[in-house]
Task: inverse folding
């Protein structure tokens, strides 16, 4: 039985050879990440100097091979590590990084991490995604596909394979339920019912619902609004951040909305300005307008639970925070605003090229505030 090979990225015994009065060679065998063992040598005036130079070269070689070189025989779990390191350096949102981490940890690495790059064929990838879909649903499978496509894309860029096999896997369809908008009568009934619910009032639910209806903002954006982002004299609010939960840290104000077009300044309807002006400021470390009952940042999931607890008894068990965005968009559409103006209000990026060119980006229309004033007509 032969001697077992060196572990990848390591070297064997270092030997010194004197070649002349002031010339020494230090040599060792190094096993590269392609599995091939190669001799590496360095020279110096003394044996010690030659060995120090060799050790530096071997460490550099291990660092470069382990974090830069990808071959067809590289294990996919190693490519996952390299890809995820790149993702973390790209400044992506904390929630996105955490989601990618979950997909790697829960699905990709346990299922295909032990394969070599050349072994992940279209068929293997298809079977993997089908398994994820059957066990945890199409949304998880679609997320796993996105992550594994990024991983194999990195291998392709390193010329370890000729083509990213994830481009040819079967499409994953996620059935999306279109959010229903509330009619104006339903909006008024809901607002009136929430005001009569002491528990809902204590949890600040009526104020949160008013703000979402009056702006069409995402719930995470609403929970991140700070008092200095409001200009009640001008009747505007700046969307500067969103509330997310970061692994190992907790709730944070992430200074980056869901998309680049999420950065925007919105005009507030007059009735909402009046309500905000009358609102008591609760001091908190983040200066947010809607803190929790303990003066902390509000968690989106917990806030959604508060909304359900308050709305279900009123017969609005089908309503979520997204329905309020849909309602605001529908009211504006019915009032004749252009798709571009509505998209700018909601922080959406994708409309047709003509509309993007004709209407200014991220310039929400002042007409929005006037049109959404119908929500508060029964407040006076």
Result:
């Amino acid at each position: 039985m032969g001697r077992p090979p060196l572990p990848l990225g390591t070297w064997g015994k270092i030997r010194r050879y004197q070649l002349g009065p002031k010339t020494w060679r230090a040599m060792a065998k190094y096993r590269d990440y392609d599995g091939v063992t190669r001799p590496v040598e360095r020279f110096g005036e003394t044996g010690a100097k030659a060995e120090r130079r060799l050790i530096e070269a071997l460490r550099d070689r291990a660092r470069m091979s382990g974090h830069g070189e990808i071959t067809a025989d590289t294990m996919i779990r190693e490519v996952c590590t390299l890809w995820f390191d790149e993702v973390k350096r790209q400044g992506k949102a904390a929630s996105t990084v955490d989601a990618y981490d979950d997909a790697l940890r829960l699905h990709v690495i346990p299922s295909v991490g032990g394969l070599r790059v050349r072994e992940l064929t279209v068929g293997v990838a298809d079977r993997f995604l089908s398994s994820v879909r059957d066990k945890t649903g199409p949304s998880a499978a679609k997320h796993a596909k996105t992550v594994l496509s990024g991983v194999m894309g990195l291998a392709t860029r390193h010329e370890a394979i000729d083509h990213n096999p994830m481009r040819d896997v079967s499409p994953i369809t996620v059935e999306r339920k279109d959010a229903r908008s509330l009619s104006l009568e339903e909006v008024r009934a809901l607002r009136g019912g929430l005001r009569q619910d002491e528990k809902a009032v204590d949890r600040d639910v009526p104020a949160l619902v008013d703000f979402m209806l009056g702006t069409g903002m995402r719930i995470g954006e609403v929970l991140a609004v700070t008092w200095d982002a409001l200009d009640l004299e001008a009747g505007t609010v700046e969307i500067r951040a969103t509330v997310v939960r970061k692994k190992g840290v907790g709730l944070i104000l992430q200074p980056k909305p869901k998309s680049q077009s999420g950065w925007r300044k919105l005009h507030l309807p007059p009735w909402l300005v009046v309500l905000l002006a009358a609102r008591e400021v609760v001091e908190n470390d983040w200066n947010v307008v809607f803190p929790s009952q303990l003066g902390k940042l509000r968690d989106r999931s917990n806030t959604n639970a508060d909304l359900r607890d308050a709305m279900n008894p009123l017969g609005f068990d089908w309503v979520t925070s997204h329905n309020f965005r849909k309602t605001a968009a529908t009211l504006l559409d019915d009032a004749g605003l252009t798709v571009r103006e509505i998209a700018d209000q909601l922080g959406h990026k994708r409309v047709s090229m003509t509309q993007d060119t004709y209407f200014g980006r991220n310039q929400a229309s002042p007409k929005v505030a006037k049109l959404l004033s119908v929500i508060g007509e029964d407040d006076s």
The chain has three domains: 10-65, 76-167, 184-358. Strands lie at 15-20, 23-31, 37-44, 230-231, 236-239, 242-246, 250-254, 264-267. Confidence is low (pLDDT under 50) at residues 351-363.
